[in-house]
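Shipment paperwork, digital attachment
Item: protein structure file
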Amino acid sequence: MVKVEGTLDELRELMGMGSSSNRRSRPAMAEVKESSTPKKDKRKLSEWNRYVKSDKNKIYIKRGPRKGRLDLAKMAAAFRKSKK
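Attachment content:
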């Protein structure tokens, strides 16, 4: 086991983790990363996706081991009924 003494800045220099240089490179790296990846357009949600996303349409299971989860079968039936 080796005992290392010194201030935090000195230790960072020894380990090669310079705090000031590291902070400067992060924003530059973020700029490069953002510009190199093309931005994807979001696709339009289907009617079912929009229906499920809305809180007023959510039907939850009330009893049993699946209590608290969405009852997708009942939601699908209500969705089909609402389209008529």
